[in-house]
Amino acid sequence: MGIFSKSKQKESEPETILQSDSPVCQAQAFVEKSDSSYYFYIWLNYLSNNPTMKVCWICNRKKAPQKLNVNSMENGRAPMMPAQYVAHNPSGMELDESQLEIVWFEEGESAALLYCGELICVIPGWSGYNDFHGYSRFASGTGPYAWELKGAHEGLTKRVQRSRSFWGYFDGDFWPQVQHEHLEALENFFGKHEKYFAIDGEKFPPKAYVCGSSNGVSYGITAGVSMIPMPKIEQAFGNNSHSFRRIELGIAAVQQHSQLCQYMGGVISSLSAMPWKEITFLAHGHTVPFNNIKGFSALLFVNPKYIPGMEHPSYNGFMGEDINLLWIVPITQEEYDFAVKNSSAELIQKAADCTQLHIFNGEKKFNV
């Protein structure tokens, strides 16, 4: 049941008429029908201690009130949209439940609702900011529970079409080709791979951790993480997010510390799931606390795109989009404190040699 379903009034309990689980995130989308309205929900991190419910009005089933019914919300009932924001028959409307369909967007944390194949409601990734809940075909203007869909319809329809095609790709035997392309890119980078570990726990999407070495440096790099674009990155990168939303993770170490690459396999496996587990993204300059390497307190992510001369595998991309390798750089407590106080960009400027900072040698990399 939704966030408005605690009523002790005589109204019947809201009914969930359609439900869908995200293919990759801890997220669940569902449509709820009450005596007075239809609502679309996305429940994020529903198995965690900090679940989040996103909610968007679809349409009223009864005559629209002239103003917001505050008492309805206080009683835990899903509120009807006031008449001034209703674009359908003001007396209400009904939906044929058999004609409803939920389509997850590529990132797996946002979704669209279709009716008879047409887009009628969307809860995008940026829902929840500035009193914005989502878009409804049956809303007019910027209502309190949904904004009108008209202005965003074309772009969101294309996004639905792209998402259908995206998820449809995984219906076939896709992994052998993806695996081959990644191994080819990695072996062109460090030579014949030495070890290969599946890190997907036999769950979708498949992914691996591949180890190799070249010129006295050992490497451990993921393969397959980039198939699924990361959530939330659109809010940070805007229209340029398609260039940064697909990642692989890697670590490098001199021969003396070569065991680090194998040790970090489990850590990197967990990090590779973080964006979809926690509904977030990883990018150049991000840090995470990590004190399991003696003398170091955190991990810094570095994208070679930002550092001319830094080595990296050459990828063909995936579905026409760039694949970004994020090198994982262990940093000391002093370096981490500097990054938090100033910025990761300023920290990186303190490197003696930016092109080599991704290669772990047991020593701190920054002059702070």
In what range is the share of β-strand residues? 25-35%
Shape: elongated
Question: Can you give the mean pLDDT?
Answer: 94
SSE topology string: EEEEHEEEEEHHEEEHEHEEEHHE
Strand count: 17
Q: Give the count of structural domains.
A: 2
Query: Could you estimate the helical fraction of the residues in percent?
Result: 10-25%
Structural class: alpha+beta
Using only CA atoms, what is the Rg? 24 Å
| Poorly predicted ranges | 5-9
The biggest sheet amounts to: 8 strands, mixed
Account of the protein in words:
This protein has 368 residues and is of the alpha+beta class. It has 2 domains: 15-169, no CATH class; 175-360, no CATH class. It has 7 helices and 17 strands. It has helices at residues 70-74, 153-169, 175-190, 233-237, 259-277, 333-341, 344-349; strands at residues 15-21, 27-33, 37-44, 52-60, 100-104, 111-115, 118-123, 135-136, 147-148, 195-198, 208-214, 217-223, 247-254, 287-289, 298-302, 324-331, 359-360. The strands form 3 sheets. Strands 10, 11, 12, 13, 14, 15, 16 and 17 form an 8-stranded mixed sheet that branches. The longest helix is centred in the C-terminal third of the chain and has 19 residues, at 259-277. The radius of gyration is 24 Å and the shape is elongated. The N and C termini lie far apart (53 Å). The model is unreliable at 5-9 (pLDDT under 50).
